[in-house]
Amino acid sequence: MPRIDRLDLSVVELRLTHGFTASTHSAKTLLHVVVRATTADGLTGWGEAPVPVDPYYLGETTDTVWSVTRDFLAPAVVGRPWDTVEEFTALYGRVKANNFARCGLEMAAWNLLAATSGRPLATLLGGAARTHVPSGVSVGMDSDHDRLCDTIAGYVGQGYQRVKVKIGPGADVNVLEAIRNRFPELPLMADANCAYTLEDLPRLRDLDAFGLMMIEQPLAWDDLLDHATLQKELATPLCLDESLTSAGRAREALALGSCRVVNIKPARLGGLLEAVRVHDACVAAGVPVWCGGMHDFGISRAANVTLSALPGFTLPGDNSGSDKYFGEDIVTPETRAVDGLIKVPAAAVPYEVKEDFLKAHTRRHVQVTA
């Protein structure tokens, strides 16, 4: 029966190798909250909340995750015994929303459970017997279409199995046309990050011409009904991201016909437990899923890759190699994509956190004890 006697919370800063721009925000530097859970006998489980620094994705920020974890989540679990992750999350069940904060703590519990049981996370999650998962790549907005296509060509040359490009009003048809002219057969999808409304229906219909795998989250971040209306008007499948913050919301979207594909992000859903529930609902409905990313550091990236071993993840995810994002990651070995495939972590403790490197990049730290 694990019991966390000490939690160390750290705000860790890493700089992106290349800045990233979407319709709602841009980023050059990341500030994620890293959680270290330690038992009385010295076993450790690491977690990560890969939260944006600004409130433009789903409202949470580094500062909100820091305060909610420090003041509410951590005190609820320190010194309390639990057997399963379901029991662990029930300890802070009174905390509503704040899914990024919940995910960071829950991830530490999963990794601690793996360490104490000697069973890899893939086994604990019920993953399929897959040794590798397919990887796609996401590229940000770039008004220089030749440069954008050159960037895509580099990733295609590395073997990534699909490309996602960010779009928005005024940077959509022209962008996709340039890409398709150069890569007519490329598995391609477009991510709008909530940039459109139903008034843009004629423009969105134009995107059907580009043979896209899907259009991700074209309408409002909290909408299901308008997406259902839009999906009836388009041949291209819609994929929901921001709108799906729980398994309940996912079931509602499937019942309404709001999408034909689902993006599963543990951080958006409050952790791996809810991510598995969304996966299971989609499998039951015959809807394909893939795993999205949040510019994750190595802790969260490894968890996402492991989640992707579940059988419903039939489409390449966004969890590309760490080297695409950072000069150096906080764990070793780092996640790598080789010929478009990422190895699923097979050990109960699949990486080592580089604590000296972590300390050098820590901007805030607090310890919570029993």
TrEMBL record:
Its EC number is 4.2.1.113. Pfam families: MR_MLE_C, MR_MLE_N. GO terms for biological process: menaquinone biosynthetic process. The keyword Transmembrane helix does not apply. Its cofactor is a divalent metal cation. Keywords: Lyase, Magnesium, Metal-binding. GO terms for molecular function: metal ion binding; O-succinylbenzoate synthase activity; racemase and epimerase activity. Residues 145-237 form the Mandelate racemase/muconate lactonizing enzyme C-terminal domain. It is an enzyme of class 4 (lyase). It comes from the Bacteria. This is o-succinylbenzoate synthase. It comes from Streptomyces violaceusniger.
